[in-house]
Amino acid sequence: MNIQIETKGTTAIYEQIMLQIKSKIVEGKLKVNEQLPSIRALAAQLQISVITTKKAYEELEKEGLIHSVAGRGFFVSECNQDYLKEKQMMMIEKKILEAVLACKHAGLTEEEMIQMARALYEMEE
């Protein structure tokens, strides 16, 4: 599983993992009953603490997005796609608000902020 960790950002690492796994589920890149990497394997792949990976999986499990099977690992749960999209929208709104406040603090006009957002949106991933 391809997960990118931003070490210079303000979002906690476990939250970055959660957000990316949620996105992959919403986008259908992770299917119902698909097995996730083990906690240790993902921690090793991302070169982070096992505790951090465990926390991400525990939070995803609390939200009902994944479930564990004793002795087998973690799997994607069957869940309501509308609920997932709504949760994702709430997280995106929070990040956009942070960006808007940063732009205002930096003295950017609304038009400059929109131009910046448009340029970033049009960039290739």
Q: Calculate the terminal CA-CA distance, rounded to whole Å.
A: 17 Å
Helix content: 55-70%
How many separate domains make up the residues?
2
Uncertain residue ranges: none
| Text of the CATH class of the largest domain | Mainly Alpha
Number of DSSP-assigned strands: 2
The geometry reads as elongated
Structure annotation, total helices: 5
| Main sheet makeup | 2 strands, antiparallel
Strand order of the largest sheet: 1-2
Structural class: mainly alpha
Share of residues in strands: 5-15%
> CATH fold name of the largest domain, please?
Arc Repressor Mutant, subunit A
Mean pLDDT: 91
CATH hierarchy: architecture of the largest domain: Orthogonal Bundle
Spell out the CATH superfamily of the largest domain. Winged helix-like DNA-binding domain superfamily/Winged helix DNA-binding domain
Q: How large, in whole angstroms, is the Cα Rg?
A: 17 Å
- Return the string of H and E elements: HHHEEHH
Q: How would you sum up this structure, described in words?
A:
The chain is mainly alpha-helical and 125 residues long. The protein folds into two domains: 13-79, Arc Repressor Mutant, subunit A, CATH 1.10.10.10; 82-122. Helix content is 58%, strand content 6%. The protein is built from five helices and two strands. The chain has a two-stranded antiparallel ribbon. A hairpin with a 3-residue loop joins strand 1 and strand 2 (73-76). Helix 1 (13-26) crosses helix 3, helix 1 crosses helix 4 and helix 2 (39-46) crosses helix 3 (50-62). It is elongated. The mean pLDDT is 91.
